[in-house]
Amino acid sequence: MKDVIIACDFSSASECYRFLDLFQGQARKPFLKIGMELFYAEGPQMVRELKRRGHRLFLDLKLHDIPNTVRRTMRVLSELDIDLCNVHAAGTVEMMRAAVEGLTRPDGSRALLVAVTQLTSTSEERMQRDLLVSASIGETIAHYARNAREAGLDGVVCSPLEASLVKAACGKDFLTVTPGIRFADSSTDDQVRITTPALAREKGSDLIVVGRPITAAPDPCAAWIRCCTEFCPENL
Ligand code: C5P
Question: To test the ligand 1 pocket, which listed residue (4, 11, 85, 119) has its Cβ within 8 A of the most ligand atoms?
């Protein structure tokens, strides 16, 4: 299951396809993530095209709304052939249950569904001061992860630094999808709770989400291979 997911944070399909051209000739197609920017710009057609090209796909829309709206939206997404999608755990257990219901197709199949705990750009200080959550970030994440499991989700999005805490709270099969990845020698940008691909592996992350360290690298394909070498050498 371990894999590197490239966050395709581009503003247009053509920019994204130009980026993907750099991976032509690779035996394995990278697992991709498209988020709000690209999905709002290009719509479901882009999802269909990436699937047609043979990529596994994480649709990172981080739904957070009333349960009925989330259920109905997930029903629409269930018709796209995505592999992984997400909601915010802050939307409550009821909202997450509605998400599972909406995502499940009539034949019982569905994409994997994970919940965002706290964004990796949020520090404990900001969470306590801006969001008025007085618990520690660790307690908050373990609690949100247990809520996600109770609602029937497959895992959570968290920092790799919290992956072992999530596994301890929810079991080793509960997925940890972890952004906030940086090479030892790269800039941190706006991320706060970060680690290297090698440390993410040690901490028990299942899937790492890597954006700028690959998309902004001088040689993105080499950066992707470097990530895989550190995180999931068995895939190479
Ligand atoms: O460029 P960078 O590696 O920081 O990109 C991380 C990606 O992971 C972005 O697309 C961001 O939206 C996403 N993400 C995150 N933290 C979360 C959930 C998703 O950084 N908790």
Answer: 119
CA dist., res. 112 & res. 139, Å (int): 24
Helix or strand run (H / E) with residue 210? strand 207-210
Q: Residue 161 and residue 154: Cα distance in Å, rounded?
A: 19
Q: Which tens digits make up the pLDDT trace of 153-174?
A: 999 999 999 999 999 999 999 9
Expressed in angstroms and rounded, the spacing between residue 112 Cα and the centre of ligand 1 is: 18
Q: What is the largest CA-CA distance in the chain?
A: 50
Q: Answer whether 0.90 is exceeded by the pTM.
A: yes
The CATH number that applies at residue 149 is 3.20.20.70
Structural domain of residue 48, as residue ranges? 3-235
Q: How confident is the model at residue 194, as a pLDDT?
A: 86
Report the helix count and the strand count for the chain, using DSSP H and E: 11, 8
Tell me the best of 9, 11, 226 to mutate to test the pocket of ligand 1, counting ligand atoms within 8 Å of each CB and taking the most.
9
How far is the centre of ligand 1, averaged over its atoms, from the C-alpha of 123 (Å)?
14
Does ligand 1 lie within 6 Å of residue 120's CB atom? yes
Note the pLDDT of residue 186. 82
Domain count, the chain: 1
